User: Which sequence fits this backbone?
């Protein structure tokens, strides 16, 4: 049986670069079909918003114990487009952009790519700070990651 779940991710940064946090909300049904939720968060002292957006997706997928069918919601076009449109060409070019420059955050893109290979992931973009309950919770978790640093 394939485990299905929804994941909402977000990153936050106070200063860019600066103190940053990431958050993820995992929603799934247990064997009795009751909705369950798991909240994840963390932070880094000197980072960027894009790195925290990537870290949220990586940490959420890493938390899954077995292969899953995931719908992952992000308010980051950088993450969604990077993983669905740009990454294949980056890999073909040896982690270089079309302008032959090193891909920024390549370490995290590689880690995300590794996690995506373990699961069937459908990537969805959601507008940030627009009242989407899952995205708002992921934002709160990301900010909690920053708050726990300071």
Assistant:
């Amino acid at each position: 049986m394939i485990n299905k779940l929804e994941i909402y991710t977000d990153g936050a940064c106070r200063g860019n670069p600066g103190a940053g946090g990431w958050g993820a909300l995992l929603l799934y049904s247990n064997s009795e079909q009751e909705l369950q939720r798991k909240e994840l968060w963390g932070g880094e002292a000197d980072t960027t918003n894009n790195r925290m957006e990537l870290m949220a997706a990586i940490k959420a997928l890493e938390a899954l114990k077995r292969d899953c069918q995931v719908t992952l919601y992000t308010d980051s076009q950088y993450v969604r487009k990077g993983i669905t449109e740009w990454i294949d060409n980056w890999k073909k070019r040896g982690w270089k952009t079309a302008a032959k420059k090193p891909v920024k955050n390549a370490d995290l893109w590689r880690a995300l790519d590794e996690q995506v290979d373990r699961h069937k992931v459908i990537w969805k973009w959601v507008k940030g700070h627009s009242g989407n309950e899952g995205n708002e919770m992921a934002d709160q978790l990301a900010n909690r990651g920053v708050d726990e640093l300071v």
